[in-house]
Amino acid sequence: MVKSTALTVEEYLHELPPDRRDVVAEVRRTILENLPEGYVESMNWGMISYEIPLETYPETYNDQPLGYAALASQKRHYSLYLMGAYADSAQETQIVEGFKKAGKKLDMGKSCVRFRKLDDLPLDVIGRVIASTTPEQLISRYEESRMK
Question: Which of 14, 76, 91, 111 has the least C-beta neighbours within 10 A?
């Protein structure tokens, strides 16, 4: 996995080749337009991260902000991490059905949607998925998972 050392989103975008920057910028725009209030955009784990800041919720197992989504340009593809789908089967179903309805092939691990070009990604589906979980819901799911 390619991991950036950029400290800001602007630095990250600047280090990408123009064609890859355009793809990441478009997916980023979709995320930001649909991101519920309370999440912040930052650089974490070497990629653009959308998370609940520690000032809001400091009680994480690894002392890192509670992640909701992340976006990265990899060597041969792009990665869109949707941690909400890992924690919520309804969100995973929404992704699977949304890709199928859009006629797109889904390449997904537990939370990572991999795609090679922007046209591989139904942005309306991604927008709905991003909008579907508030920070309070994510915190609740996280706390429930820690009790198991």
Answer: 76
- Helix ranges (DSSP H) in 1-148: 9-15, 18-34, 83-87, 89-102, 123-131, 135-147
- Taking the CA of residue 6 as centre, how many other CA atoms within 13 Å lie in the half-sphere pointing to its CB? 20
> Would the pLDDT of 91 be above 60?
yes
At residue 66, φ and ψ (nearest 5 deg) are: -75, 115
Three-state DSSP class for residue 48 = strand
Query: Residue 126 — pLDDT band, cuts 50, 70, 90?
Result: very high
Q: Please, what are the domains in the chain?
A: 9-142 (3.90.1150.200)
Please give the Cα distance from 132 to 93 (Å, whole number).
12
Q: Which residues contact 47 (CB under 8 A, 6 or more apart)?
A: 3, 4, 12, 70, 71, 72, 79, 81
